[in-house]
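Sequence, please.
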């Protein structure tokens, strides 16, 4: 009886190993999980030596893909046999098609080695998204391999494939290229909306940008790109331990985006409830960090928040909010992606078998849709702005016509008042000029009765000073525009009169190319009167000589030069004369300028002042 049982056992054992997985050079890809055997170690204590004992009952598996969900309490052992059916040495790659399983041990008992990989023990030389192991089979060789799997943080999904090396690396290159396109497109959308935020200062754009970055980070972790390119092993462990925040951050940012984008503040009850839910979700999510045993419920609060946001979006659609239609379609895409990710993790439905990049497609579509919603919002605001502008233009034209009529009336009134004022000013200048001529006549009469030559000279000086102002008023009387004086004409009349008074034939040269205001012209006329009188009196012993008068402006600074070629004078002796004191007073007090006098080869007086604003 014992021999019979032993024979049956040997027969069964032979049947089991009689159908190994054939491997050759022609097959580029072989799915091997459905031809493997599975054993669940609920103790998590069994070693490879224990597993090889006859007491371990491996079960035949027929599924191409196994999902154990969140499974921190057991280890999964997988056993499979490969046989090289060729007369050549065969080198293959075993791919474990899940980057999130935390611990993977691959046992090659024929070589007495064990290779480790997985999220918490990544092979630093690996640059592929999924863990893989090298397999070598000699001619007609048959080998049995074991895999030990455990995942105490994430869902454990098992899928095994044997690849030809070149095919595997081509597949990996294509896979990573598609992921790069996805992340690049998301990053471009984020930067595009960031620039719009910087220009528009609309806070909804900022939260949308943060949401996109949250999705990018989530997918970098979910697809395994983070693990092989960006993070060290310690950082990966920290990232996984805080995975709740990776899932929560985009949800919270999306909540803020929708809140501001759809302007929930117009609906007080909805607005208050949402403002309460967001901090509650954040606070309770912190509990999952300190209490890992609650990990099964870590997505529950996020789902409640998302459901509330969907409810609000539907409510806004019923309120005929144009932007809410975009958001609702976006929710359909996100909801589909989330549901399929959940079904995939539980093993109910493998979306990747039919559409490998559906999740990335859904996120890209949703991001584009929300960008279109933002663009539509800008267009609506622009449309409203254009409508308002059109109304303002019509109102402006109406107001413009009204103002034209009013301006015409006011202009006529102002022109009439201006003409009256101009006439009055001309009459005033005429009367001032006549009064000054009367004063000059009185001074002449008085001077005729005086025999003392010094006193007569004083009367002549006074007469010339009054005449200098009189000529100015005579010019103003003749002009319609009295804001500026024709300085050249004024200086010429003034000097001609002085020359006639002294019966002097000195040559006068003018270089006057600037017109002065009335106030400046009065001061300059009196100054010129004093300086020319001094030249006529003291500079020349005969009629040989010249006097040069210059007035010009450079960079808002006036230069007024009066010079002669006479014999000069001793400056200290002459500086206290009344005429020079008058000149100095006029320059400093009226022009707010300076005067520089030199006596070399004649006398030169240079007066400098800045244009008054």
């Amino acid at each position: 009886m014992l021999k019979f049982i032993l024979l049956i056992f040997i027969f069964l054992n032979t049947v089991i190993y009689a159908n190994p997985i054939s491997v050759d050079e022609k097959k580029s890809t072989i799915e091997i999980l459905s031809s493997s055997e599975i054993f669940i170690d609920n103790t998590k204590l069994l070693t490879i030596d224990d597993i090889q004992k006859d007491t371990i009952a491996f079960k035949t598996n027929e599924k191409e893909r196994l999902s154990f969900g969140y499974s921190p309490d057991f280890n999964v052992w997988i056993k499979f046999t490969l046989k090289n059916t060729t007369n050549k040495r065969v080198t293959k790659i075993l791919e474990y098609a899940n980057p999130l399983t935390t611990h993977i041990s691959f046992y090659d008992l024929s070589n007495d080695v064990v290779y480790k990989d997985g999220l918490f023990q990544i092979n630093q030389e690996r640059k592929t998204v999924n863990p893989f192991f090298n397999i070598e089979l000699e001619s007609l060789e048959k080998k049995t391999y074991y895999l030990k799997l455990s995942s105490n943080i994430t869902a454990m999904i098992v899928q095994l494939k044997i690849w030809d090396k070149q095919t595997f690396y081509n597949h990996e290159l294509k896979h990573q290229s598609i992921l790069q396109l996805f992340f690049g497109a998301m990053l471009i959308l984020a930067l595009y909306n960031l620039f719009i935020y910087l220009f528009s200062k609309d806070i909804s754009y900022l939260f949308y940008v943060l949401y996109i970055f949250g999705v990018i980070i989530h997918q970098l972790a979910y697809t395994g790109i983070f693990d092989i390119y960006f993070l060290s092993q310690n950082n990966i462990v920290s990232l996984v331990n805080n995975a709740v925040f990776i899932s929560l951050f985009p949800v919270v940012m999306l909540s803020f985006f929708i809140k501001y984008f759809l302007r929930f503040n117009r609906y007080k009850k909805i607005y208050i409830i949402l403002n309460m839910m967001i901090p509650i979700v954040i606070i309770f999510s912190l509990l999952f960090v300190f209490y890992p045993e609650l990990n099964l419920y870590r997505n529950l609060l996020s789902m409640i928040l998302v459901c509330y946001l969907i409810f609000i979006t539907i409510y806004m659609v019923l309120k005929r909010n144009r932007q809410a239609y975009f958001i609702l379609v976006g929710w359909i895409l996100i909801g589909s992606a989330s549901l399929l990710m959940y079904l995939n993790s539980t093993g109910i439905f493998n979306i990747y078998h039919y559409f490998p990049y559906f999740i990335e497609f859904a996120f890209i579509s949703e991001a584009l849709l929300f960008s279109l919603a933002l663009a539509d919002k800008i267009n609506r605001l622009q449309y409203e702005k254009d409508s308002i502008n059109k109304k303002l233009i019509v109102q402006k034209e109406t107001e413009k016509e009204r103002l034209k009529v009013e301006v015409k009336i006011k202009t006529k009134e102002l022109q009439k008042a201006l003409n009256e004022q101009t006439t009055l000013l001309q009459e005033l200048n005429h009367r001032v000029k006549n009064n000054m001529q009367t004063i000059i006549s009185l001074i002449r009469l008085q001077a005729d009765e005086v025999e003392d030559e010094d006193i007569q000279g004083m009367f002549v000086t006074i007469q010339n000073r009054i005449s200098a102002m009189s000529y100015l008023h005579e010019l103003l009387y003749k002009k319609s525009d009295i804001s500026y004086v024709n300085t050249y004409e004024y200086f010429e009349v003034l000097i001609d009169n002085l020359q006639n008074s002294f019966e002097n034939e000195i040559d006068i040269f003018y270089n006057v190319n600037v017109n002065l205001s009335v106030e400046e012209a009065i001061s300059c006329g009196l100054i010129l009167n004093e300086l020319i009188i001094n030249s006529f009196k003291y500079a020349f012993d005969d009629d040989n000589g010249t006097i040069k008068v210059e007035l010009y402006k450079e960079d808002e600074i006036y230069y007024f030069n009066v010079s002669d070629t006479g014999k000069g004078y001793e400056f200290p002796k002459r500086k206290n004369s009344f005429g020079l004191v008058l000149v100095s007073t006029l320059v400093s007090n009226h022009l707010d300028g300076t005067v520089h006098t030199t006596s070399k080869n004649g006398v030169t007086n240079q007066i400098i002042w800045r244009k008054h604003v």
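Confidence is low (pLDDT under 50) at residues 1-18.
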